[in-house]
Amino acid sequence: MKKSIWIMLIVMGVIIIDQVLKIYIKTHMGYGEGFKILGFNWARIYFVENEGMAYGMKIGGQYGKLILSLFRIVMVGFLGVLIYRFIRSGEKMSLLISFSLIMAGALGNIIDSAFYGLIFSETPEFHGEIARLVPFGEGYSSFLHGKVVDMFYFPMINTYLPEWVPIWGGERFVFFQPVFNVADSSITIGVVSLLLFNRKFFTASKKDEKKEENTGIN
Q1: Could you read off the pLDDT of 75-87 as tens digits, one per residue?
Q2: Is 150 a catalytic residue?
Q3: 91: nearest Cα among 211, 204, 185
């Protein structure tokens, strides 16, 4: 099978899984509702929404949200061109998969930001109401201002710090606290695989830059 087809399957597969799960969670659960995965206290489905970056990190205000959405779109375009060039130059499949996972994750969250505000009603944080699909354009927000749906929560350590710990002694400590989604996971896996299995790509790029500099000097 051609590399380009594999890339398309990976990107589409991640987006479909991501969006099916997000839409199901959003239309079947109230904000803050959840349940244990296979009965484990440290692995849960927990529905929240965020207006910012991956893993619940935020960027301030409506303009910040718009800038973030536009940045994601530009980044996806850049990654698309990069992957196309890699395919043409015969780069190894592991490198293509890494960049494809990053692009797929970015696209998954772009869909939330771009369209969820247009097609869903608001999910109140304190009233337990469940969002519903509404006619296009009659949702809770405008284009590129939708909230990103998160649902995976893994509080593997949930305890109180000893009193003798400086500053935070006696306070609650939770690890891993961020709530995330399939798209976030795809980006993380793509970045980690780049660093672990494709470091030669970055070292090769630096060598090429040095060669070009030396050629220019001579």
Answers
A1: 999 999 999 999 9
A2: yes
A3: 204
